[in-house]
Structures are given as C-alpha cells and as structure tokens.
Amino acid sequence: MARAIWSGEIAFGLVTIPTKLYTATRDMTPQFNQLHKECGTRIQMVRRCSTCNRDVEYSEIGKGYEVEKGKYALFTKEELAKIEGEDGAGGIDIVEFIDPKEVDIAFISKSYWVGPGGKSARGFELLRETLEKTNRVALAKVKIRTRTQLALLRPRDNLFALDMIHFADEMVSGDDIVVPDARAATDRELQLALNLVEQLSGPFDPSKHPDEYRAAVEDAAEEKTAAGEVATSAEEERPAAAGGKVIDLAELLATSLRVAKTGPKKASLPEPPPANEPEEEAVQEAVGQQHKPDGKRGKSPAKPAKKKAASG
C-alpha cells in the first residue's frame, strides 16, 4: 500500500478538497559511495570553516544570500519564516485553467500522484471529471514545506498527476545558440526521412527500453562479489549503542572490572548523546519538498531520513 508523503487541500474557488500526495517517480540511477582505498571506510562530509580552520557545529551556522561576489545578506530563521509566510501553506491553490498543449514539456521538473484525503471523494471526483470534460489542466501554486512552486494538476485515470514546473525566469533561452546555415533537403532526402520515421513509429511504452547502464553495473557488482573483490568498512563493523555512539569495548571492560572489585553494581553502556535536533532540521531542508509542510493545512507522515555519507 502506497504511503502518503504529505496531506493538504486543493483550493478550487470556495471549495476545499482534502488530498494526499504520493511519490510518482524514483531515481534508480546506480549510486557509488566514496571509500578510502586503504581501509574501505566511507568518506564522511564535514562542515569546516576555512578561515577558522576548524569543524563547526550546526548551531554555529547561519544563512546568507549572496548580493555580490563574497558579500552576503544574513538572515535568521525567524526572518526566513516571515518571508515564506503562511499563504498557501500546505495547499494546492488553483490559479487558472489552461490548455495542456500550450505547456512546453521542458517546464516539468518532478511529478507526484494526488489522491483523495477525506472520507468522501465527491469533491475530488467532481474536479477530476470537470477537467476531463473540458480538456483542461489546472495551473496551481503549491506550497510543500517552505517554498511556493508552480505546478500542473491534471487528471490521470482515477487520480490527479501533479507536475511541478519551473518558473518562467528559470528557463534558459536558446536564442544565443548559434545554428549554422544549412541547405534545404532534397525531395528524396525528405521522403527517406519520412519513411524512416514511419517505420520506427509505435505506441509509447518505456518498458521496452530498460536502463542498460544500471543492469550492467548490477551484473558487474555481482561478478566482483563472487570474485571476493569486496571492501568492508571497518567503521561499519563496529557495534554502536542506541543513539549512534560507538562503544569503547576496552572502557566497558575496565568499568566492569572496577565494579567487580568495589561492589555488585552493574556496569552499563555509556549514555547515548542527546539527539541533535538542528542536524535533523538540516536533513529535512536538504530533502526539501518531500517532507511535511510548515503551515496550517496539513501534515506529513513521512519522517526525515538520517544523514548519509557522501556519495560520488
């Protein structure tokens, strides 16, 4: 059963329709981790200040918007929250209805599924059927977590597809690309090209064209595993206490020995460090729009992923 990553509402005039958002795509590109060749340990990312020449805690880090080279306007968390505002927080606000044929496919960046979120799907079905009958899609302002984005809401079977799209000024013009002059094609060349297109035409079925690169990587990885060409990270082999603190076995044994000499009191594992809440907040920001929104309309059941090691 699919799990919703966000809950909110579609604002359709004065009507609000409870909805849930689901992931529609996933990146299956093979990912490679950076390892230290000498011992096989994964390389970790660190926050380091080059001026102070030391690692810094998350609590020491602020946010700045570069106004010119090397100069930044500094913002507090409260100031950014005020700029983000609450209008449209956690919602899909329809601003107009448009002809989907007028939308250049280059505008689309990421897609989601939208399903009904309430006990009744009456309003949801009404909007879906209306768009189908008018051959229109809804252009909407969507706020998931912080930033407001543009999106297309379109009927897809018994659901909606929500296609996040770029703002107009985010599209790069091709006007500056130089195209050299070319002579006109002859009638024979054009006919041959038309025949070739006709011969290679068919219904859209992406399953006919699988990811050959991923399959090749997986096959090669299986061969290396069978041949014993596998690195085991020494760091990942160490047992860890709850909270992620590495157990110092020597210290634990020494503590046990002292306790055995002084009394029956049991030795215990070192206390785990307190949760680093700012660190979790940073991970949520990095993940962006796949986490719960900051606002009044809805909440996300998804939890932020733990920070991973650097990948190459």
Give a written overview of the molecule.
This protein has 312 residues and is of the alpha+beta class. Among the domains are: 1-32 and 79-169 and 217-237 and 275-307, Ku70, Chain: A, Domain 2 (Beta Barrel); 239-272, no CATH class. The chain is built from 7 helices and 11 strands. It has helices spanning 77-84, 122-134, 187-199, 212-226, 234-237, 249-262, 277-287; strands spanning 6-12, 15-23, 48-49, 54-55, 63-68, 71-75, 91-98, 108-116, 137-143, 148-156, 159-165. A hairpin with a 2-residue loop joins strand 10 and strand 11. The radius of gyration is 27 Å and the shape is extended.
Q: Helices, strands, pairings?
A:
Blueprint: E1 6-12, E2 15-23, E3 48-49, E4 54-55, E5 63-68, E6 71-75, H1 77-84, E7 91-98, E8 108-116, H2 122-134, E9 137-143, E10 148-156, E11 159-165, H3 187-199, H4 212-226, H5 234-237, H6 249-262, H7 277-287
Parallel strand pairs: 1-7
Antiparallel strand pairs: 1-2, 2-8, 3-4, 5-6, 7-9, 8-11, 9-10, 10-11
Keywords:
312 residues, alpha+beta, Ku70, Chain: A, Domain 2, seven-stranded mixed β-barrel, two-stranded antiparallel ribbon, 11 strands, disordered C terminus
CATH topology of the domain at 1-32 and 79-169 and 217-237 and 275-307: Ku70, Chain: A, Domain 2
Biggest sheet: strand arrangement: 1-2-8-11-10-9-7
Per CATH, the architecture of the domain at 1-32 and 79-169 and 217-237 and 275-307 is Beta Barrel
Provide the helix percentage: 25-40%
Could you give the order of the helices and strands? EEEEEEHEEHEEEHHHHH
Report the β-strand fraction as a percent range. Answer: 15-25%
Q: Total number of β-strand segments?
A: 11
Mean of pLDDT? 79
Structural class category: alpha+beta
Shape: extended
Q: CATH top level of the domain at 1-32 and 79-169 and 217-237 and 275-307? A: Mainly Beta
**How far do the termini sit from each other?**
32 Å
Query: How many helical elements?
Result: 7
For the largest beta-sheet, the strand count, sense and barrel status come to:
7 strands, mixed, barrel
Stretches with pLDDT under 50, minimum 5 residues: 240-247, 264-312
> Radius of gyration over alpha carbons?
27 Å
